[in-house]
Design brief:
The chain contains 5 helices and 2 strands, in the order H-H-E-E-H-H-H. The protein has about 90 residues and is mainly alpha-helical. It has one domain. It has a two-stranded antiparallel sheet with strand order 1-2. A hairpin with a 2-residue loop joins strand 1 and strand 2. The chain is elongated and about 55 Å long. The protein starts with a helix and ends in an 8-residue tail after the last helix. The mean pLDDT is about 85.
Length: about 90
């Protein structure tokens, strides 16, 4: 039984545990991603670079969204892009 389990009772074990430090780490990484110019980012999926034409990036720039939204909205996929190595 680990230290956290010893502190929590049986009723508490069904709750999901999140580390504040990890949440802050993720938010900092998102902030860093969003501060980059989208055209200067090499996106990868399963360690494979995604080939995203500049025209797609330029179209997305006019939407007023951030770099994370580019991925979450799947904008890069909806434009007929395929995964390729660079």
């Amino acid at each position: 039984m680990d230290e956290l389990n010893m502190v929590l009772g049986d009723n508490e074990m069904s709750k999901k545990i999140f580390k504040i430090e990890r949440v802050l780490e993720l938010l900092n990484e998102i902030k860093e991603i969003n501060q980059c110019n989208l055209e200067n980012i090499i996106w990868t999926k399963d360690s494979i670079a995604i080939d995203i034409p500049l025209a797609v990036i330029e179209d997305f720039a006019y939407m007023g969204l951030n770099n994370i939204d580019f991925i979450l909205s799947e904008f890069y996929l909806e434009n007929g892009l395929n995964e390729t190595t660079k």
